[in-house]
């Protein structure tokens, strides 16, 4: 039976996944079998990477790190829920943060935003979110960012054209601030045991900018 159109398209990517597994085994696992055998016994990540679920943002690729180095949390728009000692919401992200810091004892936390972020764009697309109720609820975490941006526009401090970049970068800063309100994170930062960083990744140029809390701006990593 010959496949056509969408069925053929889906079949090609279905096969690509399985081909990728075979390529991994032959080209990555077998040449580094001892490394993976040791990795299978334990993990000791040095960094918690909180990034967007966007398919174009690949943490190990942009940091050139090996398996076992990054403890990764990915969600729409790289959001960090507000700290609550006891909570029954947004547990997927908060539990991962708690585990990475208190159990894995990571030395760094990176919040990484990026250009052309669909999550950040969704803040201004109420109609588009009508049929995405769970996404709409999740994006409530970024409403403070939207409010600040709209205030800036109202005061003519930024244009509508500048809104996208400002939203994406401000969102990174806001999520860093959320992290620093987690009591166990705040304590470790104060003791010099933990670094909290904010990055902004330009997908089209490959450039990554680090947020300087003293200068209050993003500086390109050279």
TrEMBL record:
One of its GO terms (biological process) is carbon utilization. It catalyses: hydrogencarbonate + H(+) = CO2 + H2O. Its cofactor is Zn(2+). Pfam families: Pro_CA. SUPFAM superfamilies: beta-carbonic anhydrase, cab. Keywords: Lyase, Metal-binding, Zinc. Belongs to the beta-class carbonic anhydrase family. Gene3D superfamilies: Carbonic anhydrase (3.40.1050.10). The lineage of its organism: Bacteria, Pseudomonadati, Bacteroidota, Bacteroidia, Bacteroidales. Its EC number is 4.2.1.1. Reversible hydration of carbon dioxide. Binds 1 zinc ion per subunit. GO terms for molecular function: carbonate dehydratase activity; zinc ion binding. This is Carbonic anhydrase. Zn(2+) binds at residues 52, 54, 114, 117.
